[in-house]
């Protein structure tokens, strides 16, 4: 495999349509590649092709129109810039709702508060064919404070932080539940445009999210909460000794009594290992820094059920999930550090800082 070019930050400014247009133009090749990846994934897991997936996505347009209509203008801009139909971009942004009835992702995430500093970190685990399509967007719109989103080309958001010090991580949940609310990745963008914790949490608590996932939201002021979202009232996971952890299964009783999930066998071992590392190995503030948190994300205990995930040849090809990037955010300092690929294989780190507002 040819070496990957280092990731760079894509700077997007202006109105929503201008932001989308620039996104589409600058990443047209990667957006088309993302569509090819999800065409294969939908066929592997759901038994439908891209055209059928576009039909499935139509129903989510009305939900976005009710809950976050402005973002549709940005999607239209992305489509125009990439030479695609708006339906293609809508489908990319609703890929979780279409695929996670059968396909389960990975991801290990945690929030940690030590020495008046709020950290937020995670590994994003997914199919390896999506690795080249990871992008880093710095969005400075007319409508919200500057934000950084690390995610997939053509999608409006995933994991990141904003200049207010609000950050969010994502854990996929495999479930057949899907109701009314914002699609997961659209809700993540709305959270990243939130000026404070109250409004960020309200995206899930008041507006709701149409399919299950876990959003780990934190603030540079030292607040953090895990939200197991679904079409109903989200389950809340409060910090324990400054720590919130999550992988890919539901844990809040308020949610597990309403929603059935189907986690992979590695989800619970990864969560137990995260808890052990954070509570036992980093009890003192002096041991907490960016390098130490990347070390946690690089952990291989219980491999192949480990936090840092590598190709598992014992699984069917379409089921193999690997760590595609790792993010460590110091929300208090508005700093985001990213390693593209497995964190155990590289120390090359892309660092981005936002000026506080």
TrEMBL record:
Q: A Gene Ontology MF term for this entry?
A: transferase activity
> Is Manganese tagged as a keyword?
no
Q: Which InterPro entries match?
A: C45_proenzyme-like, Peptidase_C45, Peptidase_C45_hydrolase
Domain Peptidase C45 hydrolase, first and last residues per copy? 115-343
Say which domain of life the source belongs to. Answer: Bacteria
Looking at the keywords, is Transferase present?
yes
Alphabetized UniProt keyword annotations: Transferase
Spell out the protein name for this chain: Peptidase C45 acyl-coenzyme A--6-aminopenicillanic acid acyl-transferase
- The organism named in the record is Halomonas urumqiensis
């Amino acid at each position: 495999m040819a070496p990957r070019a280092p990731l760079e930050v894509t700077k997007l400014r202006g109105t929503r349509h201008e932001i989308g247009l620039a996104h589409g133009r600058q990443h047209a090749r990667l957006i088309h590649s993302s569509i090819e990846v999800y065409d294969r994934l939908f066929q592997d897991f759901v038994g439908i092709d891209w055209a059928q997936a576009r039909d499935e996505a139509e129903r989510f347009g009305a939900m976005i129109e009710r809950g976050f209509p402005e973002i549709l203008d940005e999607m239209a801009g992305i489509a125009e810039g990439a030479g695609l139909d708006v339906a293609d971009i809508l489908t990319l942004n609703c890929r979780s709702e279409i695929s996670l009835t059968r396909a389960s992702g990975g991801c290990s995430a945690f929030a940690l508060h030590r020495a008046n500093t709020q950290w937020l970190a995670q590994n994003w685990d997914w199919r390896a064919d999506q690795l080249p399509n990871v992008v880093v967007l710095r969005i400075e719109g007319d409508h919200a404070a500057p934000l950084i989103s690390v995610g997939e080309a053509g999608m409006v958001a995933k994991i990141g932080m904003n200049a207010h010090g609000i950050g969010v991580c994502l854990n996929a949940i495999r479930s057949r539940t899907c109701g009314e609310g914002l699609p997961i990745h659209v809700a993540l963008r709305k959270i990243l445009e939130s000026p404070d914790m109250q409004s960020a949490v309200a995206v899930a608590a008041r507006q709701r999210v149409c399919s299950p996932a876990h959003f780990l939201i934190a603030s540079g002021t030292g607040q953090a909460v895990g939200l197991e979202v679904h079409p109903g009232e989200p389950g809340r996971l409060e910090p324990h000794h400054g720590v919130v952890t999550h992988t890919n299964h539901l844990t809040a009783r308020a949610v597990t009594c309403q929603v059935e999930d189907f986690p992979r066998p590695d989800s619970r071992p990864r969560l137990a290992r995260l808890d052990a590392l954070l509570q036992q190995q980093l009890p003192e503030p002096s041991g907490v820094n960016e390098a130490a948190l990347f070390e946690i994300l690089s952990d291989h205990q219980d491999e192949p059920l480990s936090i840092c995930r590598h190709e598992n040849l014992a699984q069917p090809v379409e089921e193999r999930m690997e760590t595609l990037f790792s993010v460590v955010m110091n929300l208090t300092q508005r700093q985001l550090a990213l390693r593209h690929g497995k964190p155990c294989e590289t120390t090359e780190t892309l660092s981005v800082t936002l000026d506080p507002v």
